[in-house]
Design brief:
Helix content: 25-40%
Order of helices and strands: EEEHEHHEHHEEEEEEEHEEH
Mean pLDDT: 96
Number of strands: 14
CATH class: Alpha Beta
Distance between the termini: 36 Å
Bound molecules: zinc ion
Radius of gyration: 16 Å
CATH architecture: 4-Layer Sandwich
Low-confidence stretches: none
Largest sheet: 5 strands, mixed
Amino acid sequence: MNFSIITVTPFQQNCSLVWCERTRKAAVIDPGGDVERIEAAVEEAGVDLSMILATHAHLDHVGGVAELAEKYHIPVYGPHREDQFWIDALDAQAEMFGFPPARPFTPDRWLDDGDEPRLGEEVFQVIHCPGHTPGHVVFFLPRARLAFVGDVLFAGSIGRTDFPRGDHAALLASIHNKLLPLGDEVRFVPGHGPMSTFGEERQSNPFLRA
Ligand SMILES: [Zn+2]
Ligand SMILES: [Zn+2]
């Protein structure tokens, strides 16, 4: 397994390119926009892009999904069905944030807790982590001890919950009951900002103190 992070959109969103080194099959997680930069990263890595994964349906994470899926003829997996209302609101999101109009998409498969999309010889574990959005999912690679957590958890912070259907208590429950138990050594790529580990956040993140 290998990966690279491509920072996209005016919101500096961390889009990730993840690939299986044996088969060269690759997934893009959260293509929020700047599709030409994602294409350049695919080219540079010399990988076979075969799926798009979405953690949640905020525009800065899915703004490039439709274009990328069409260009590469690849399926879109995720987020969880509970985020449908955010996909329905993509136009309003674009207007609100001053983004170019975003094309809607329909996931080829909604994801549920416990799903295991396969990428070559790698398997992602899907963990449903509601709170920031009700349909937010996290992608965990158990062998690599690496998680892609979207806007659930950041280095030194946690996701906003002041959006429609945001839920602060649910977010904290997701982090404490589903993410931190994966292990202190697990590294994670957040939706924005630098990488960290669950152990580092458990010890020092001010939003996780009781
Ligand atoms: Zn978000
Ligand atoms: Zn975001």
